[in-house]
């Protein structure tokens, strides 16, 4: 069991252990159904597939082909042309090879897991989520003194703890622009606690959606989300205003916690939060919910979405890596194509897409060794293994087109020790925390970032006592009369990305035009990207560019790692075009 202190101060690299290796380029071609899996006769146990329709094909023709091959459509996204299908036909993919309406088909499995961001291992996250559903308290492995804070009130009671806001001058920007309620920010994550008192004023429950269905276990019987006990109708679908993981609530608060004399402020404290839940309680993200969330965002006039996760089960998706089976290669090609179609759709409908760069501490523009993929058993016997991945392999969504990829900085403005990087990969940098960014290289939890935390999870995790007071130093409580909010310290590129998304929301608020189709405001995503990059503070590579990180762990052991920054002051692999600046972004 990971202790609570470890959970909130160390970046867990359970799926992200990668080392540099030598390179070879791979062609990124999309599989045809015939390449995906040879035709086979007979029946098998029920299995799920994802089917990507050929662009321009009629959905009715594709669905007829699916049915003729022995498949039943569970769900379909007609905007992208992606269907989730159930079948007992062992030769289902091969049977679709002659259909002119189908472009690709692959066995279905998870495409995402929220980066661990100094949080728990998968097992610990699942235990917390299950405990929250059961309203029980998980006490094992807890510890650490509670911390109380004296108030130095400026904007908000806990503003003096928000070094991140000061780094990007968001506190100063609020004198000129705090956001417009007509600007919608979609949170593609594990959900949002819409009842949190420092989120509720800006939360739009009517527009929010949950695109996920809880998954009890994977194909090998390993528990994922656990039983659906919180859902009395048996549909395994949670309400659209809950977060049984905590990750999405932290992200939402970072963007748009209101200035209301309670707790903290978000970067854009007057914009509207829309929960577009695409992640499981356990932190995994499936293809269909992600695609559905993106197209829904475009359809309802969302202006900015934040995607603080990478696309599982593959940290890197390769077109024809010899380390993968033909079936796995087909999966990866389909996921890349379907995800890009959904992002293209959102972008064409006015959505600015912002994504976390990843916590693997590697250069994405080099060849790496991925030892953690696939991290979800989509079909029996599938397991992680070591495989060499050249730069042509892509991580989703951060390496997709029309996506702003964000690296993470610490309090000193250095690139965080865990943040992935790469010249030509990183677009901008933003504060996400680095608990070892201290004079002695020892851990200081206050050098992570502070944002909202669902009370139900704090209770389930044993982090507050019977009086409602924190029992650990990474959880902070603040009250305004009878209303009390809880906040937790987390670090990761998942925390950097929403702060950049908040700046994007301020840009739309400042320069956007009236949206005749949906009301509110709108601004071309390319314009938003140009402004956020053009107003970022150019930050040069370290001198020398090979920077060695030293961390003295709580155990007393010392860990070092060297990352090399390539590029010039105006554009490089650590900071991209620079650290985002809210004040400059709104014209001051």
**Cα Rg:** 23 Å
For the termini, the CA-CA separation is: 49 Å
Which regions have little confidence, pLDDT < 50, spanning 5+ residues? Answer: 1-41, 115-153
The residue fraction in helices comes out at 10-25%
Mean model confidence by pLDDT: 86
Question: Counting H and I runs of at least 4 residues, what is the number of helices?
Answer: 14
The structure class reads alpha/beta
> What gross morphology would you assign?
globular
Number of strands: 25
Strand order within the widest beta sheet = 8-9-7-11-12-15-16
For the report, how would you describe the main beta sheet?
Answer: 7 strands, parallel
Proportion of beta-strand residues:
15-25%
Biased composition (Acidic residues): 216-232
Domain Peptidase S8/S53: 180-537
Family: Belongs to the peptidase S8 family.
Protein name: S8 family serine peptidase
Q: Overview of this structure, please?
A:
By secondary structure, this protein is α/β, with parallel strands linked by helices. It has 14 helices and 25 strands. It has helices at residues 4-7, 33-36, 59-68, 92-95, 122-134, 163-167, 170-173, 247-256, 287-300, 326-348, 455-460, 493-511, 525-534, 582-585, and strands at 18-20, 43-53, 71-77, 82-89, 102-107, 110-113, 184-188, 209-210, 272-277, 284-286, 304-307, 352-356, 368-373, 385-389, 403-409, 428-431, 449-453, 475-480, 483-490, 513-514, 521-522, 546-552, 558-564, 567-568, 571-572. It has a 7-stranded parallel sheet, with helices on both faces. A 4-stranded antiparallel sheet has the order 3-4-2-5. A 3-stranded antiparallel sheet has the order 1-13-14, with no helix packed on it. Helix 8 links the parallel strand 8 and strand 9. Helix 9 (287-300) packs parallel to helix 10. The longest helix has 23 residues, at 326-348. The chain is globular, with a radius of gyration of 23 Å. The chain starts with a helix and ends with a helix. Residues 216-248 are annotated as: Disordered. This is S8 family serine peptidase.
């Amino acid at each position: 069991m990971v202790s609570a202190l470890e959970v909130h101060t160390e970046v867990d690299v359970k799926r992200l252990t990668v080392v540099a290796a030598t390179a070879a380029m791979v062609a990124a071609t999309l599989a045809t159904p015939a390449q995906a899996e040879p035709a086979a006769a007979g029946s098998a146990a029920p299995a799920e597939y994802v089917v990507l329709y050929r662009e321009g094909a009629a959905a009715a023709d594709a669905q007829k082909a699916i049915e003729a091959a022995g498949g039943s459509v569970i769900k379909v996204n007609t905007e992208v042309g992606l269907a989730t299908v159930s079948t007992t036909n062992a030769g289902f993919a091969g049977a679709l090879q002659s259909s002119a309406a189908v472009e690709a088909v692959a066995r279905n499995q998870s495409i995402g897991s929220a980066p661990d961001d100094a949080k728990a291992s998968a097992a610990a996250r699942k235990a917390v989520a299950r405990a929250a559903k059961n309203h029980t308290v998980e006490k094992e492995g807890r510890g650490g003194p509670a911390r109380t804070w004296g108030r130095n009130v400026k904007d908000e009671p806990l503003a003096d703890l928000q070094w991140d806001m000061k780094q990007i001058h968001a506190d100063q920007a609020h004198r000129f622009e705090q956001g417009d309620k007509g600007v919608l920010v979609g949170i593609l994550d594990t959900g949002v606690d819409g009842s949190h008192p420092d989120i509720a004023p800006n939360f739009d429950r009517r527009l929010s959606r949950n695109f996920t269905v809880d998954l009890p276990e994977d194909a090998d019987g390993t528990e994922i989300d656990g039983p659906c006990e919180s859902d009395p109708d048996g549909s395994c679908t949670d309400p659209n205003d809950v977060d049984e993981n905590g990750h999405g609530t932290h992200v939402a608060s970072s963007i748009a916690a209101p200035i209301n004399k309670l707790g903290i402020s978000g970067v854009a404290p007057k914009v509207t939060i829309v929960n577009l839940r695409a992640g499981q309680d356990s932190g995994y993200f499936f293809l269909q919910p992600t695609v559905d969330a993106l197209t829904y965002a475009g359809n309802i006039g969302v202006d900015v979405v934040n995607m603080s996760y990478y696309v599982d089960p593959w940290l890197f998706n390769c077109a024809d890596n010899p380390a993968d089976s033909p079936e796995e290669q087909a999966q990866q090609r389909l996921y890349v194509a379907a995800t890009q179609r959904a992002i293209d759709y959102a972008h064409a409908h006015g959505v600015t897409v912002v994504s976390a760069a990843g916590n693997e501490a590697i250069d994405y523009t080099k060849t790496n060794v991925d030892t953690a993929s696939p991290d979800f058993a989509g079909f029996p016997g599938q397991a992680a293994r070591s495989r060499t991945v050249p730069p042509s392999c892509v991580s989703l969504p951060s390496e997709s087109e029309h996506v702003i990829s964000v690296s993470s900085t610490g309090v000193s403005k250095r690139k965080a020790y865990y943040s992935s990087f790469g010249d030509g990969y990183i677009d901008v940098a933003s504060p996400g925390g680095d608990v070892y960014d201290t004079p002695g290289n020892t851990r200081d939890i206050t050098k992570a970032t502070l944002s909202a935390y669902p009370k139900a999870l704090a209770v389930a995790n044993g982090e507050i006592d019977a009086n409602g007071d924190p029992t650990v130093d990474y959880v902070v409580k603040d009250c305004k009369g009878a209303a009390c909010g809880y906040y937790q310290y987390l670090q990761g590129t998942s925390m950097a990305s929403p702060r950049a998304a908040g700046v994007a929301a301020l840009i739309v608020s400042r320069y956007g035009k009236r949206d005749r189709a949906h009301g509110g405001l709108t601004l071309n995503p390319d314009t938003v990207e140009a402004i956020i990059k053009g107003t970022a503070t150019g930050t040069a590579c370290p001198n020398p560019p090979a920077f060695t990180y030293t961390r003295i762990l709580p155990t007393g052991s010392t860990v070092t790692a060297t990352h090399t920054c390539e590029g010039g002051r105006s554009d490089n692999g650590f900071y991209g075009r620079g650290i985002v600046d809210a004040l400059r972004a709104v014209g001051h």
